[in-house]
Amino acid sequence: MEVARILTPQEERIIKGQEREELTTEEGRKKRERVNKLVSKVRVTPPRVDIQRALLFTESFKETENLPMVLRWAKAMENVLNNIKVAIGEDELIVGNCGRVERHCILYPELRGAWLEHGLEDIKEKGAYLVADEDIKTVKEKIVPYWKGKTAHEMYIALLPEATRYAIYGSDNYGASGVMQDNANINATLNWAPDYKKVLEKGFLGIKKEAEERLNSIDVAAPENNYDKIPFLKAVIIVCDAMIAYAKRYAKLAKELAAKETNENRKKELEKIAEVCEWVPANPARNFHEAIQSQWFTQVGFRLEQPTTGVISQGRIDQYFYPFYKKDVDEGNLDEDSALELLECLWVKLANFVPLNATNAKSFWEGYAHFEHTMVGGQTRDGRDATNELSYLIIKSKKEFPLNYPDLSVRIHSKTPEPFLREVCDLIREGTGFPKLFNDEEIIPHLINNGASIEDARDYTGAACTEIRMPNVDTYMVVGGNINLPAALEMAMNDGMFTLEGKRQQLGVPTGTAEKFTTYEELVDAFRLQVEHFMKHFFIRQSALEITNSKRLAAPLMSSVHDVCMRELKDIHQPLKTGISKDTGNINLNGFGTVVESLAAIKKVVYDEKRVTMSELMEALKNNFEGKEALRQMLLNAPKYGNNDPYADEIAREIDAMLLETATKFKTPNGPQHIKFVPVTSHVGMGAKLGATPNGRKAGEPLSEGISPSQGADTKGPLATLISIDNAKSRKYANSFARLLNIKLSPQVVAEEKGLQDLMSLVRTFCDLKLWHLQFNIVNSDILRDAQKNPEKYRNLLVRVAGYSAYFVDLSPQLQNEIINRTEHKLI
Amino acid sequence: MASSKDISNQTLGCIFNIQKFSVHDGPGIRDVVFMKGCPLRCKWCSNPESQNKLPEIGYNHNKCIGIDECGYCLEVCSTKAIKTSTPDTSTPSIVINRDLCDNCGKCVMVCPAKAVTIFGEMMSVEDVLRVVQEENVSWRSSGGITVSGGELLLQSEFVHELLKECKKRGIDTAIETSGYGCWNDLEKICRYSNLIFYDIKCMDPDKHKKYTGVRNELILDNLEKIAAHFPQTPVIVRTPIIPEFNNSLEDIKAIIEFLTKIQNLKDYELLGYHAFGEPKYRQLGRKYQLEQLTPPKKEYISELNQKARALLKEKGIL
After folding, report:
1. What is residue A791's predicted lDDT score, i.e. its pLDDT?
2. Among A628, A629, A754, whose Cβ lies nearest the Cβ of B23?
3. Alpha carbon distance A802, A355 (integer Å)
4. In terms of DSSP bridges, do strands A587-590 and A481-484 run parallel, antiparallel, or are they unpaired?
5. Is the pLDDT of residue A815 over 50?
6. By Cβ atoms counted within 10 A, which residue in A46, B90, B208, B262 is the most buried?
7. CA-CA-CA-CA torsion sign (A600, A603, A606, A611)
8. What are the Cα distances from residue A433, in Å, to A407, A436, A801, A827, B200?
9. Greater model confidence, A500 or A221
10. Measured torsion, CA atoms of residues A180, A107, A300, A246, in degrees rounded to the nearest 10
């Protein structure tokens, strides 16, 4: 039966024409006026580039060229933390910034300094970021000249063979060819989740004390001379002191402001801030307020130290904050509303820091992508359900908090309590794309398979998009990159030839042209060889980057809170022996759905039914199906992955097995690399540079996203989609991680009590099927179309992009279309 | 109606759709099996492809890519039912002469765009259950199967076997029926139905005949029999609200008066008329009779629903 259109709560708010950005519940607005005021200011202007960090960091580096890298980094951090402006905004309770108080981004010239020469002017012109002309001048005069020739990126490029470099970058070392896409040196490391608990429990004084004791015990005359550990330990001591000093500058400022303050209430608040900053992060936190402030200061330190992909994760926030929350509540010092207020003050701090990606690769990171992964639920280290009052409170906060911060995710497992799942699904129904779901039933066995203990595996946290980390066990991986699978298929059909930058050339390996293949198997084999060729490029680049990072980067602050670094007394950018260096997904494969559909279409139409010859198909692809619509329709109507169709799903499974097997053939100096399916938005950028594909996709259209079928190809309902995703899992090796799945539902499907129950069943099914990840877009397609036409009306419309939620109007038209074209599962 | 059998003597049903992930036709996430063929001809029918008993060709003009780059259907049509359309648009396409067409389906096989399709497929109980159980993970949602139509009573033997087999396998069952059929058939089917959706369109037999092609005495009588023979099986009665036919409060009051006799009534729902079925009439080469009719406002329907609910409460039925 058909039902009238139903709006999600988010859509209703937007259609009512709410102008000011504020908390979405009346209760929230009434009880948390402070948060409401803070929130309304965040998105008033685009983020501004703040150059303080880059300037202070560079200043120090000029003075320390004779020192080991880890010490240079510590001293640079010291210079930044001692001299960066401290400022407390009106109404703030949680303080500390990486730049100005208001929305900002900062620069890391040590990675891609040369990009800054033109990059800042480019982004200014595009209007997505504000940057002062004066600051551009300073960057060009004082920062770029020092770094030119010394950056990590330049060393990395120098270490690449030309063929590999060209396959990744083409003619622009700060761009992307579209065949491969490289995130090297945009960030210093892959996404990361540190152990905040250590700081909350020991304080930086405690961490420093440990380092001092180790330093004092170093004896060159002892049997194992560990003189080489001295620079690392000294660096840890320096950053601990610098973090404490930085907080004390805030204590001092708060005291000064309190003295001047005439409003009695605010005066008390400022005095309280002073007291808190005087105590943490130097000492162990004593209450909820101190715990949050200490965690935020630590995050500020991490953010100033280096960029991690998608910004630093918050980890299992409902776990490490819980003891402080519980104690305060039990002692009668904290109620739900003040706890929410403190948490939301933290969310505002997150929202005011925006990562800036130093790349010319357009549409690879759209909509201010950020992943300060904030995870709730899951299991305890001893395997009990970990849900607590704070888990519920954070879900509640997310319902009323109108911004796309924090990036919230929930761990689902077989024992996830029904009431909690209900709250989670009700939040999903809001339609803002939060939270994303991770499946313990898939992830924990995977981690154990890769060498983790069962306790550590149970304690994993999300990091970045759909990746995961075990704090204190996993160690750094250098940033990976993307491979365009449909491009490899094009090369498999064309003897390795490919048109890049307007030039037809031998980019892949010669495997013959498809007209000569007499069987489907020959085609698959040629495809395998092309994939292998690009994986080889990938491993070369990965090795070059590993070498570069160990020489050019250090992160003493991050290392100071990592068990493995403190055990081995080595910086986290160095190869470490006692952690698990097997990564959790680094080779990112794009266009899995596009390739599987293409192969299914060729198998069916060319080899099985012989309705079309391979030459006809090749000709049609070359001409972007011009005059060949009938052929294109045959391809479009061939069996499609995502519909629980064994014909297509079996091909998906075979290709999955082949990809996993190919990845096991290579290693970098640090070890093997694993596969993931997390495009962020690169499937749009890569699609833009690719010609027509045999699944009927026209040139320039986006590739399929993550592990999802092509946009609009799954027409048998979300259950069939889930089952197909399961069918596509070959389980051949334990090296397949982070399989991103996006499902779009029409709001009417999840309406009312029954809709909520059905959504819960869908999530339980996802859990039963042991799929890695699931996220929903619950939004009416006509609303999205209207938002394209009238962006001013829809400034606040959040959608799920790929592992993160972004404002629809901030996205490019291509990506907007991609989201609209995803199948909207609705009622008939 | 005598049922069809295949060569191994299995009963076959003519089914025009198995709708996956249906969430408004009974508890949980369900598969709705649409049986083809209906004795009624409701003017507002939104599933015109459900009316005829046998498979028939549908043609979706919007999906057709035109004969300039295609035209395969013209080549294979052995009865010359498919002709080039007079090109009123830039791309000439096709028209199907329904008098000549024998629904052989050759055009369906060759159409690359699936613009020509066939409504209705002969399936065995096992075929249906295979499709339904492809997604057996959904049963933890307390979902199941809902058999709808058309009018399932026209294929009662098949439906009876299907539901019986579902019960055997623990699959939850529901039916949607107009109630227009032989009581013996209905009785057999109800034995295997956990939930019954039953349509009552209006109480006036003459008006009923004018708008649906049949009188309503049999329908009303059958519902009373269900109440008497299956007092434990919940019945949800539905009334489609059609402007100019049954959209007054008086119409609804009359139905509610009748419903006081139905002791196992679980709910009564009013559904607003919509014209979403209109394009399908064109696909079948038929004319939609209610083109000029404006669907009632959402508010009107919800108001009417509230009034009906209040009345039912007043009478102590719900």
Report:
1. 80
2. A754
3. 17
4. parallel
5. yes
6. B208
7. negative
8. 10, 7, 8, 20, 41
9. A500
10. 150
User: Do A717 and B20 touch, CB atoms closer than 8 A?
Assistant: yes
Chain B residues whose C-beta sits inside 8 Å of any chain A C-beta: 19-25, 27-29, 46, 65, 69-70, 72, 112-114, 134-135, 137-138, 140-143, 271-272, 274, 276, 298
Is there a cis peptide before residue A646, judged by omega within 30 degrees of 0? Answer: no
Measured at the CA of B25, the angle between CA B22 and CA B28, to 5 degrees, comes to 65
Q: Is A477 on the interface with B (CB under 8 A)?
A: no
* Contact assessment for residue A487 and residue A498, using Cβ atoms and an 8 Å cutoff: yes
* C-alpha to C-alpha distance for B168 and B158, rounded to whole angstroms: 15
Class for domain B13-53+120-276, per CATH?
alpha beta
Kindly report, as residue ranges, where domains of CATH 3.20.20.70 are found in chain B: 13-53+120-276
Residue A123 has a pLDDT of 84
Tokens describing residue A90? 């009106």
What pLDDT is attached to residue A539? 95
Any CB–CB contact under 8 A between A617 and chain B? no
Give A363's pLDDT tier (boundaries 50, 70, 90).
low
Q: For chain B, 318 residues long, give each residue's pLDDT as a single digit of tens.
A: 456 777 778 899 999 999 888 888 999 888 999 999 999 999 999 899 999 999 999 998 888 998 888 999 999 999 999 999 876 666 778 999 999 999 999 999 999 999 999 999 999 999 999 998 887 765 555 789 999 999 999 999 999 999 999 999 989 999 999 999 999 999 999 999 999 999 999 999 999 999 999 999 999 999 999 999 999 999 999 999 999 899 999 999 999 999 999 999 999 999 988 888 888 898 998 999 888 888 888 889 889 999 999 999 998 887
Interface of A with B in 701-760 (CB under 8 A): 716-720, 722-723, 749, 754-755, 757-758
DSSP E strands in chain B: the ranges are: 4-5, 11-22, 30-35, 56-59, 82-84, 94-96, 116-119, 121-124, 144-148, 172-177, 195-199, 235-241, 265-272
Interface confidence (ipTM) of the complex: 0.87
Q: What is residue A139's DSSP assignment?
A: I
| Whether B123 contacts B13, CB under 8 Å | yes
Confidence class of residue A18 from pLDDT cuts 50, 70 and 90?
Answer: low
Residue with the two structure tokens 């069916």: A604
Best mutation target among B16, B17, B29, B90 (most A Cβ atoms within 10 Å) is B29
Location of each CATH 3.30.70.20 domain in chain B: 56-119
* Chain-chain contact of A719 with B135 (C-beta, under 8 angstroms): yes
CATH architecture of residue range(s) B56-119: 2-Layer Sandwich (3.30)
Task: Quote the mean pLDDT of chain A.
Answer: 91
Closest to B218 in 3D by CA, of B183, B259, B245: B183
Instruction: Kindly list the residues from chain A whose CB atom is less than 8 angstroms away from the CB atom of residue B298.
Output: 4
Catalytic residue numbers of A? Answer: 465, 467
Query: What is the pLDDT, as a whole number, of residue B88?
Result: 63
Residue A569 pLDDT class (50, 70, 90 cuts): very high
Q: Is A762 on the interface with B (CB under 8 A)?
A: yes
Residue listed under structure tokens 């990592």: A562
Contact A629 B22 (CB under 8 A): no
Minimum CA–CA partner of A631 in chain B: B112
- The values of phi and psi at residue A93, to 5°, are -110, -35
User: E strands within A485-572?
Assistant: 497-500, 503-506
**Residue-wise burial string across A27-56, b where 16 or more C-beta atoms lie within 10 A, e elsewhere:** ebeebbebbbebbebbbeebbbbbbbbbbb
Q: How far is A717 from chain B (nearest CA, A)?
A: 6
Written as one string, the DSSP assignment of A675-706 is EEE--TTHHHHHHHT----TTSPPTTPPPP-T
Burial bucket for residue A20 (CB in 10 Å: 0-12, 13-18, 19+): exposed
pTM: 0.91
